[in-house]
Write a structure and sequence with these properties.
Layout (H helix, E strand, L loop, with lengths): L1 H7 L23 H14 L3 H32 L7 H19 L1
Length: 107
């Protein structure tokens, strides 16, 4: 995971990527409103836009890696039999009961 975060600072899109934001030279073209909001946020936080975007991307990639790790772990639990799958109706019933219990505690 550490290498992923280190590489984030030098992240570039390959010139062959089919992205609507790719300029073909490795740079990214942002829609005007996204560019404007990132510039405003950078000014408010008194940080450079590049630094702000790199931190945001690093945080996103970190969260994505954690989610992937959790999903892989859950899949392994199901595959090994350590966890049992439940059908959608049972899952919904459990969620509904949990929500009702929380509402009753709040009232």
């Amino acid at each position: 995971m550490g290498n992923l975060l280190k590489d984030c600072a030098s992240l570039r899109l390959a010139s062959g990527d089919a992205s609507p934001y790719s300029e073909g030279d490795g740079s990214i073209s942002w829609p005007r409103r996204r560019k404007r909001s990132s510039n405003e946020l950078a000014a408010e936080s008194r940080r450079g836009t590049n630094e702000l975007l790199q931190d945001a991307l690093a945080g996103y990639l970190d969260e994505l890696a954690q989610a992937r790790e959790m999903l892989n772990s859950r899949y392994d639990d199901l595959k090994s039999g350590r966890a049992k799958p439940i059908d959608d109706e049972e899952a919904f019933a459990r969620l509904k009961a949990k929500t009702e219990a929380q509402r009753n505690r709040s009232a």
